[in-house]
Amino acid sequence: MSKILTLEIANKFLSDPIGVSWRAEREGLGERLEDYTSMDDAAAQALAQHEGGLNLRGLTSLSDAAVQALAQHKGDLDLRGLTSLSDAAAEELAKHEGSLDLSGLTSLSDAAAQALAQHHGILVLSGLTSLSDAAAQALAQHKGGLWLWGLTSLSEAAAQALAKHEGRLGLDGLTSLSDAAAQALAQHEGFLGLPGLTSLSDAAAQALAKHEGELVLYGKAEEAVKLARKRLAKQK
Protein backbone atom coordinates (compact mmCIF):
# COMPACT_ATOMS: atom_id res chain seq x y z
CA MET A 1 0.00 0.00 0.00
CA SER A 2 1.43 3.35 -1.08
CA LYS A 3 1.95 5.91 1.64
CA ILE A 4 2.40 9.47 0.42
CA LEU A 5 4.63 11.94 2.23
CA THR A 6 2.71 15.20 1.96
CA LEU A 7 3.69 18.80 2.62
CA GLU A 8 1.76 18.69 5.90
CA ILE A 9 3.75 15.68 7.11
CA ALA A 10 7.01 17.26 5.96
CA ASN A 11 6.26 20.47 7.83
CA LYS A 12 5.43 18.52 10.97
CA PHE A 13 8.82 16.84 10.76
CA LEU A 14 10.61 20.12 10.10
CA SER A 15 8.98 21.77 13.11
CA ASP A 16 10.42 19.13 15.44
CA PRO A 17 12.58 16.56 13.58
CA ILE A 18 14.02 14.96 16.70
CA GLY A 19 10.73 14.79 18.55
CA VAL A 20 8.74 13.44 15.61
CA SER A 21 11.34 10.76 14.90
CA TRP A 22 11.62 9.82 18.57
CA ARG A 23 7.88 9.47 19.13
CA ALA A 24 7.49 7.36 15.99
CA GLU A 25 10.42 5.14 16.89
CA ARG A 26 9.96 4.78 20.65
CA GLU A 27 6.29 5.28 21.25
CA GLY A 28 4.78 4.18 17.96
CA LEU A 29 3.10 7.54 17.54
CA GLY A 30 2.95 8.81 13.98
CA GLU A 31 5.06 7.76 11.05
CA ARG A 32 8.76 8.03 10.36
CA LEU A 33 9.90 9.62 7.10
CA GLU A 34 11.31 6.29 6.03
CA ASP A 35 7.84 4.72 6.22
CA TYR A 36 6.61 6.59 3.15
CA THR A 37 6.88 5.12 -0.35
CA SER A 38 6.15 8.25 -2.38
CA MET A 39 6.42 12.00 -1.93
CA ASP A 40 4.67 15.14 -3.10
CA ASP A 41 6.86 17.62 -4.93
CA ALA A 42 5.96 20.25 -2.36
CA ALA A 43 7.12 17.96 0.45
CA ALA A 44 10.43 17.41 -1.32
CA GLN A 45 10.95 21.15 -1.67
CA ALA A 46 10.23 21.64 2.02
CA LEU A 47 12.48 18.81 3.23
CA ALA A 48 15.32 20.05 1.06
CA GLN A 49 15.63 22.96 3.48
CA HIS A 50 16.26 20.64 6.42
CA GLU A 51 19.77 20.95 7.84
CA GLY A 52 20.69 17.41 8.76
CA GLY A 53 20.21 13.87 7.58
CA LEU A 54 17.11 12.75 5.68
CA ASN A 55 16.16 9.10 5.92
CA LEU A 56 13.89 8.56 2.93
CA ARG A 57 14.80 4.95 2.33
CA GLY A 58 11.18 3.95 1.89
CA LEU A 59 10.68 5.96 -1.29
CA THR A 60 10.44 3.72 -4.35
CA SER A 61 10.07 6.51 -6.91
CA LEU A 62 10.64 10.24 -7.24
CA SER A 63 9.37 12.76 -9.75
CA ASP A 64 11.87 14.90 -11.65
CA ALA A 65 10.79 17.90 -9.60
CA ALA A 66 11.32 16.01 -6.32
CA VAL A 67 14.78 14.92 -7.43
CA GLN A 68 15.71 18.49 -8.32
CA ALA A 69 14.50 19.65 -4.92
CA LEU A 70 16.30 16.99 -2.87
CA ALA A 71 19.51 17.66 -4.79
CA GLN A 72 19.61 21.01 -3.01
CA HIS A 73 19.57 19.36 0.42
CA LYS A 74 22.78 19.56 2.47
CA GLY A 75 23.40 16.57 4.70
CA ASP A 76 23.15 12.79 4.56
CA LEU A 77 20.49 11.60 2.11
CA ASP A 78 19.25 8.02 2.21
CA LEU A 79 17.40 6.99 -0.96
CA ARG A 80 18.16 3.29 -0.87
CA GLY A 81 14.57 2.43 -1.76
CA LEU A 82 15.08 3.55 -5.36
CA THR A 83 15.77 0.57 -7.60
CA SER A 84 16.33 2.52 -10.80
CA LEU A 85 17.69 5.94 -11.67
CA SER A 86 17.48 7.82 -14.94
CA ASP A 87 20.55 9.54 -16.31
CA ALA A 88 18.87 12.90 -15.76
CA ALA A 89 18.07 12.08 -12.13
CA ALA A 90 21.67 10.95 -11.56
CA GLU A 91 22.88 14.26 -12.95
CA GLU A 92 20.67 16.15 -10.52
CA LEU A 93 21.54 14.06 -7.45
CA ALA A 94 25.22 14.51 -8.18
CA LYS A 95 24.74 18.11 -7.07
CA HIS A 96 23.78 16.97 -3.58
CA GLU A 97 26.23 17.87 -0.83
CA GLY A 98 26.65 15.11 1.71
CA SER A 99 26.50 11.34 1.93
CA LEU A 100 24.27 9.83 -0.77
CA ASP A 101 22.91 6.31 -0.32
CA LEU A 102 21.64 4.71 -3.52
CA SER A 103 22.25 1.14 -2.44
CA GLY A 104 18.93 -0.02 -3.87
CA LEU A 105 20.17 0.38 -7.43
CA THR A 106 20.95 -2.95 -9.06
CA SER A 107 22.15 -1.48 -12.35
CA LEU A 108 23.73 1.77 -13.45
CA SER A 109 24.20 3.10 -16.95
CA ASP A 110 27.58 4.43 -17.97
CA ALA A 111 26.03 7.88 -18.33
CA ALA A 112 24.56 7.75 -14.82
CA ALA A 113 27.92 6.63 -13.44
CA GLN A 114 29.57 9.55 -15.22
CA ALA A 115 27.06 11.92 -13.63
CA LEU A 116 27.33 10.51 -10.10
CA ALA A 117 31.10 10.73 -10.32
CA GLN A 118 30.67 14.49 -9.93
CA HIS A 119 29.15 14.00 -6.48
CA HIS A 120 31.31 15.07 -3.54
CA GLY A 121 30.95 12.98 -0.41
CA ILE A 122 30.27 9.37 0.47
CA LEU A 123 28.53 7.53 -2.37
CA VAL A 124 26.90 4.19 -1.56
CA LEU A 125 26.18 1.93 -4.53
CA SER A 126 26.28 -1.38 -2.70
CA GLY A 127 23.37 -2.87 -4.66
CA LEU A 128 25.44 -3.17 -7.83
CA THR A 129 26.74 -6.70 -8.40
CA SER A 130 28.64 -5.81 -11.56
CA LEU A 131 30.20 -2.73 -13.09
CA SER A 132 31.17 -2.07 -16.68
CA ASP A 133 34.69 -0.94 -17.38
CA ALA A 134 33.31 2.41 -18.57
CA ALA A 135 31.29 2.88 -15.38
CA ALA A 136 34.34 2.01 -13.28
CA GLN A 137 36.42 4.57 -15.16
CA ALA A 138 33.73 7.16 -14.54
CA LEU A 139 33.30 6.41 -10.82
CA ALA A 140 37.05 6.50 -10.36
CA GLN A 141 36.75 10.26 -10.79
CA HIS A 142 34.48 10.50 -7.74
CA LYS A 143 36.02 12.22 -4.74
CA GLY A 144 34.93 10.79 -1.41
CA GLY A 145 34.12 7.39 0.04
CA LEU A 146 32.92 4.96 -2.63
CA TRP A 147 31.12 1.89 -1.34
CA LEU A 148 30.67 -0.87 -3.92
CA TRP A 149 30.04 -3.65 -1.44
CA GLY A 150 27.81 -5.66 -3.77
CA LEU A 151 30.30 -6.26 -6.58
CA THR A 152 31.02 -9.97 -6.97
CA SER A 153 33.53 -9.65 -9.79
CA LEU A 154 35.94 -7.06 -11.10
CA SER A 155 37.75 -7.00 -14.42
CA GLU A 156 41.37 -6.01 -14.66
CA ALA A 157 40.39 -2.83 -16.50
CA ALA A 158 37.83 -1.92 -13.82
CA ALA A 159 40.40 -2.58 -11.08
CA GLN A 160 42.94 -0.37 -12.83
CA ALA A 161 40.37 2.40 -13.07
CA LEU A 162 39.16 2.18 -9.46
CA ALA A 163 42.74 2.14 -8.21
CA LYS A 164 42.90 5.80 -9.23
CA HIS A 165 39.91 6.71 -7.04
CA GLU A 166 40.69 9.35 -4.42
CA GLY A 167 38.99 8.32 -1.21
CA ARG A 168 37.96 5.27 0.78
CA LEU A 169 37.08 2.32 -1.45
CA GLY A 170 34.92 -0.56 -0.23
CA LEU A 171 34.77 -3.75 -2.30
CA ASP A 172 33.45 -6.05 0.40
CA GLY A 173 31.54 -8.37 -1.95
CA LEU A 174 34.55 -9.69 -3.82
CA THR A 175 35.41 -13.23 -2.75
CA SER A 176 38.26 -13.69 -5.21
CA LEU A 177 40.69 -11.47 -7.07
CA SER A 178 42.86 -12.19 -10.08
CA ASP A 179 46.56 -11.49 -9.87
CA ALA A 180 46.19 -8.65 -12.37
CA ALA A 181 43.31 -7.06 -10.44
CA ALA A 182 45.24 -7.35 -7.19
CA GLN A 183 48.27 -5.72 -8.81
CA ALA A 184 46.07 -2.88 -9.97
CA LEU A 185 44.23 -2.31 -6.67
CA ALA A 186 47.51 -2.33 -4.79
CA GLN A 187 48.17 1.06 -6.40
CA HIS A 188 45.12 2.59 -4.67
CA GLU A 189 46.09 5.16 -2.07
CA GLY A 190 44.19 5.12 1.20
CA PHE A 191 41.57 2.83 2.70
CA LEU A 192 40.84 -0.30 0.69
CA GLY A 193 38.24 -2.73 1.99
CA LEU A 194 38.41 -6.32 0.70
CA PRO A 195 37.03 -8.26 3.68
CA GLY A 196 35.13 -10.73 1.50
CA LEU A 197 38.21 -12.34 -0.06
CA THR A 198 38.43 -15.96 1.01
CA SER A 199 41.89 -16.64 -0.42
CA LEU A 200 44.69 -15.08 -2.46
CA SER A 201 47.35 -16.50 -4.73
CA ASP A 202 50.96 -15.86 -3.72
CA ALA A 203 51.27 -13.29 -6.52
CA ALA A 204 48.10 -11.47 -5.48
CA ALA A 205 49.14 -11.46 -1.82
CA GLN A 206 52.56 -10.10 -2.72
CA ALA A 207 50.97 -7.33 -4.76
CA LEU A 208 48.55 -6.29 -2.00
CA ALA A 209 51.37 -6.42 0.55
CA LYS A 210 52.78 -3.35 -1.17
CA HIS A 211 49.55 -1.37 -0.75
CA GLU A 212 50.10 1.89 1.09
CA GLY A 213 47.22 2.73 3.35
CA GLU A 214 44.66 0.88 5.44
CA LEU A 215 43.88 -2.52 3.97
CA VAL A 216 41.00 -4.57 5.38
CA LEU A 217 41.23 -8.33 4.89
CA TYR A 218 40.13 -11.29 6.96
CA GLY A 219 40.95 -14.95 7.33
CA LYS A 220 43.25 -16.69 4.88
CA ALA A 221 43.56 -13.58 2.69
CA GLU A 222 44.78 -11.53 5.63
CA GLU A 223 47.26 -14.20 6.64
CA ALA A 224 48.56 -14.46 3.09
CA VAL A 225 49.26 -10.73 2.93
CA LYS A 226 50.90 -10.73 6.36
CA LEU A 227 53.22 -13.50 5.24
CA ALA A 228 53.99 -11.66 2.00
CA ARG A 229 54.88 -8.54 3.97
CA LYS A 230 57.27 -10.50 6.16
CA ARG A 231 58.98 -11.84 3.06
CA LEU A 232 59.26 -8.36 1.59
CA ALA A 233 60.72 -7.04 4.83
CA LYS A 234 63.43 -9.72 4.79
CA GLN A 235 64.40 -8.73 1.25
CA LYS A 236 65.16 -5.15 2.30
**Under the CATH scheme, which architecture of the domain at 83-235 would be assigned?**
Alpha-Beta Horseshoe
CATH class category of the domain at 83-235: Alpha Beta
Encode the helix/strand succession as letters: EHHEHEHEHEHEHEHEHEHEH
Task: Give unreliable regions as ranges.
Answer: 22-29
CATH topology of the domain at 83-235: Leucine-rich repeat, LRR (right-handed beta-alpha superhelix)
Oligomer: single chain
Q: Whole-Å distance between the termini?
A: 65 Å
Rg computed from alpha carbons, rounded to a whole number of angstroms: 20 Å
Largest sheet: 8 strands, parallel
What overall geometry do the principal axes of the alpha carbons give? elongated
- The side-by-side strand order for the widest beta sheet comes to 3-4-5-6-7-8-9-10
Overview of the structural elements:
Helix content is 39%, strand content 8%. It has 236 residues and is an alpha/beta fold. The protein has a domain at 83-235: Ribonuclease Inhibitor (Leucine-rich repeat, LRR (right-handed beta-alpha superhelix), Alpha-Beta Horseshoe). The strands form two sheets. Strands 3-4-5-6-7-8-9-10 form an eight-stranded parallel β-sheet, with no helix packed on it. It has a two-stranded parallel sheet with strand order 1-2. β3, α4 (64-70) and β4 form a beta-alpha-beta unit. The N and C termini lie far apart (65 Å).
